[in-house]
């Protein structure tokens, strides 16, 4: 069972470089999201999607772009990396309404990004 | 606004003792869900327990139970007979409606250390 797969697991960037964090899920979940985790701040929502072709901003969207062309994939793009984007990034998915525990998130293993 | 507060940045407990991790929440929605996740040093996010706002009984999952006090807006996690493997970061989260969409909001986390 693959679940939610994130790549890469580790990445070092220089300020100003761009990159894409990939996320794929094989559970046919409608909802997908990206969080960043920083010490003392818990997990904060960057962007989310409630279905293919639909995305919206979360709490900390600046500097990040997303798209959702298929149900399975939800990539996160950093357009011009900044040191403030050094963080651990989690992709998570959730079934739609009707699930036994509505809103439960299934997480990828995380991607540790360092911006120098 | 939806908010989750975990007031204990760190806790130290002797093995085999019970431990309570505090979580308070703020919401005006009548329907919401509360989750606890565990994050061991390896970094993955592991679902532990869920409580729906309309559930009559406190949730239990093995050694984990959720002390849900709706009037006080608290959802404390109780771990009975703690084990060394319980050492981890613990996050409380709430499902709520934010800007018209269901989202999961996380607290800052509590780092639990079990001493032998």
Task: Provide an overview of this structure.
The complex is a heterodimer of chains A (about 120) and B (about 120). With about 120 residues, chain A is mainly beta. Helix content of chain A is about 0%, strand content about 50%. In chain A, a hairpin with a 2-residue loop joins strand 5 (about 40-50) and strand 6 (about 55). Chain B is an all-beta fold and about 120 residues long. In chain B, about 0% of the residues lie in helices and about 55% in strands. Chain B has strands spanning about 5, 10-15, 20, 25, 35-40, 45-50, 60, 65-70, 75-80, 90-100, 100-105, 110-115. In chain B, strand 10 (about 90-100) and strand 11 form a beta hairpin. The interface of A and B includes residues 31, 56, 101 and 107 of A.
Mean pLDDT of chain A: 92
Structural class of chain A: mainly beta
The whole-number mean of residue pLDDT values of chain B reads 93
Our estimate of the beta-strand percent of chain B is: over 45%
Q: Structural class of the secondary elements of chain B?
A: mainly beta
Q: Helical region count of chain A?
A: 0
Counted by DSSP, the helix tally of chain B is 0
- The beta-strand count of chain A equals 11
Q: Count the strands of chain B?
A: 12
Question: What is the terminal-to-terminal distance of chain B?
Answer: 41 Å
Q: Could you give the order of the helices and strands of chain B? A: EEEEEEEEEEEE
- Please mark out the parts of chain B with pLDDT under 50 across 5 or more consecutive residues, or reply none: none
* Range of helix content of chain B: under 10%
Tertiary shape of chain A: globular
Radius of gyration of chain B: 14 Å
Largest beta-sheet characterization of chain A: 7 strands, mixed
Q: Could you describe the largest sheet of chain B, including whether it forms a barrel?
A: 6 strands, mixed
